[in-house]
Amino acid sequence: MRIDYHTHHSRCGHAVGTLEEYIQSAIAKGMEQIGLSDHMPLLHVDPETYYPEMAMPMAELPAYVEECLQLKEKYKDQIQVRVGLEGDYIEGHEEQIADIIQNYPWDYVIGSVHFLGTWDITDFRQVHNWEGRNIIEVYEQYYDAVQKAAAAGLYDYIGHIDAIKRFGYRPEEDVTPLEDAALQAVARHGLAIELNAAGIHTAAKEMYPSLRMLEKARSLEIPITYGSDAHHPDRIGQKQEQALAMLKTAGYSRLATFNGRKRDMILL
Ligand code: ZN
Ligand code: FE
Ligand code: FE
Ligand code: ZN
Fold it and tell me: What is the pTM of this model?
């Protein structure tokens, strides 16, 4: 398993290191492919007044893509660089997201649900939003957004599909039907998902998705890729052995890779 399709860098304001440092780290770790997938600029909240250090400014997007393309060329004899974007799914803003996607030569676009309205459920500074909320209702809202992201026709795969568990809020109710409905939407719309190692370091203490969801995804024949979600160059390829073991347990034998918005399957 010599790929990593989910990485960030300093432009987003909350990650460390240049794009080149992530690529060099991937080469040092023997990777064959690295996907650069920094956060999409904020669209639906005012970057001037919202929490700082969420994503690159919109004005920075052309320079991001340009630098990715230059590095792809520069390192082409050492590693295959794939140019990507972690695109948020924001209900009601599909056209603006589509514009961003259409304007650049992406190899792939990840569809991640971070926002429920203006609440970024993955931001530690916003955890207070859980207070007084009915946990299962937040889960329902989250998985509804995931289903809409899968149906939006914008993305190649869904990122950290059960990210709602990130801060350890788990409802007493069974969430299996919500999780499975999200996976069924992914399968129906022909998308892939990722095994995202970053969940390990959160209060959820497990990767995204859980082994149960991964097994369900396998039974639905949903293709899978791997991503470290590295926000530091050292984290490239993190927990790959554990990820590999999980994938084997779930019955996967191939990984999805992306090139020019086309999916290619490679052996695990
Ligand atoms: Zn980030
Ligand atoms: Fe994310
Ligand atoms: Fe990410
Ligand atoms: Zn992420």
Answer: 0.98
Fold of 3-267: TIM Barrel (3.20.20)
State in Å: Cα 28 to ligand 2 middle. Answer: 25
Which stretches does DSSP call E strand in 197-261?
224-227, 254-259
Nearest ligand for residue 199 CA? 4
144 C-alpha vs ligand 3 centroid, how far in Å? 20
CA of 219 to the centre of ligand 1 (A): 30
User: How many angstroms separate the Cα of 200 from the Cα of each of 111, 163, 173, 250?
Assistant: 20, 11, 23, 18
Distance from residue 234's CA to the centre of ligand 2 (Å): 18
Measured in Å, residue 8 CA sits from the centre of ligand 4 at: 8
**Tens place of pLDDT per residue across the chain (268 aa):** 899 999 999 999 999 999 999 999 999 999 999 999 999 999 999 999 999 999 999 999 999 999 999 999 999 999 999 999 999 999 999 999 999 999 999 999 999 999 999 999 999 999 999 999 999 999 999 999 999 999 999 999 999 999 999 999 999 999 999 999 999 999 999 999 999 999 999 999 999 999 999 999 999 999 999 999 999 999 999 999 999 999 999 999 999 999 999 999 999 9
Q: Domain residue spans in the chain?
A: 3-267
Q: What angle do CA 168, 172, 174 make, to 5 degrees?
A: 100
Looking at the DSSP bridge assignments, the partners of residue 167 are none
Instruction: Report CA(159)–ligand 2 centroid distance (Å).
Output: 7
Name the token pair of 181: 């409905």
